[in-house]
Amino acid sequence: MYCVRVYVDESGDLGFGPRASQYFVLAAIVVRDDQKIRRCFKKIRQRKLKKSLRDLPEFKFNNTKGLIKDPILQCIADCDLDITYAVLRKNQVHSRLRDKQQIIYNYLTGSLISKIAHQYATEGHIYVCIDKSTYSLERDHFDDYLTYRMFDDGAPNATSFDQLAIEHLDSRTEPCIQAADFVAGAVHQMYRENDETYYRIIEPRIAIALDFFQGRQK
C-alpha cells in the first residue's frame, strides 16, 4: 500500500530571551525514495570528508562547512522528494504564549503536517518521523495532538486514525532527518541573514511554505 513518508527537523529555538533566535523554522521533507537520501550522505562522507572525519555521528547544517553544505543540499534537491516548511516570526507571538514552548511547537508541527496530509492525500499510510531530541517532550500528548489536527482538519482520504504513524528517532541514525535539518538550516539562513545562497539550491523542490504570521502562504 502506498505510504507518504515525512521527515521533520528544525532550526532556531523557541526561547524569547535576549540571545534567542528571531525566527524558528520547522522543515519537513516528503520522501518517495529514502534510499537515495541515504546514498547521498554515504557518498559525501566517502568522497568529501577527510578520513579522520568520516566517522562523525551525523551531519548538522550549523556545524558543517560551506564546501560540504553545497553538495549535501544539491544532492537533496536531486532526490525524489518535496520540501515543505513553516517559519515562525517570534516577535509576533503573543506574550501569554511565550513560556509555552510545547504548545507553540505542537501548533506549528500540526499545521504543517495537516497541510501535507491535505496535499498528499492517500488511502495508504502517512509516516511521520521526528527527531526525538526536539520540543516534543510530552510525546503522547504531541502524538495525540498531531493525529487530531490531521483528521480534524479533514484530510480528504484520511479515514482511519490507524493511517498515521509517528516515530521519534535519533537523528544520528536517520539520514532523512539530517536532510530535513539541512533544509531547515537553509531556510533559516535566508530569513535570519537575508542570504539565499543555500535556499536557492532547494527552492525548486519547495511545495509548501507557511509563514507565521506574515508573507505569502504556498
Q: What topology emerges from the helices and strands here?
A:
Blueprint: E1 3-12, E2 23-31, H1 34-47, H2 66-77, E3 81-89, H3 101-119, E4 125-131, H4 139-152, E5 164-169, H5 175-193, H6 199-202, E6 206-212
Parallel strand pairs: 1-4, 3-6, 4-5
Antiparallel strand pairs: 1-2, 2-3
Helix pairs in contact: 1-2, 3-4
Major sheet summary line:
6 strands, mixed
Integer-rounded radius of gyration: 17 Å
Strand order of the largest sheet: 5-4-1-2-3-6
Shape: globular
Averaged pLDDT? 86
Domain unit count: 1
Helix content: 25-40%
* CATH 4th-level superfamily: Ribonuclease H-like superfamily/Ribonuclease H
Question: What's the number of helices?
Answer: 6
Span from first to last CA? 29 Å
Query: What is the number of beta strands?
Result: 6
Strand content: 15-25%
Write out key terms for the chains shown:
218 residues, Nucleotidyltransferase, domain 5, 6-stranded mixed beta sheet, 38% helix, DUF3800 domain-containing protein
Write structural notes for this entry.
- The structure is a single chain.
- By secondary structure, this protein is α/β, with parallel strands linked by helices.
- The protein has one domain: Nucleotidyltransferase, domain 5.
- The chain is 38% helix and 22% strand.
- It is built from 6 helices and 6 strands.
- It has helices at 34-47, 66-77, 101-119, 139-152, 175-193, 199-202, and strands at 3-12, 23-31, 81-89, 125-131, 164-169, 206-212.
- It has a 6-stranded mixed sheet with strand order 5-4-1-2-3-6, with helices on both faces.
- Helix 4 links the parallel strand 4 (125-131) and strand 5.
- Helix 3 runs parallel beside helix 4.
- The longest helix has 19 residues, at 101-119.
- It is globular and about 50 Å long.
- The model has no long low-confidence stretch (mean pLDDT 86).
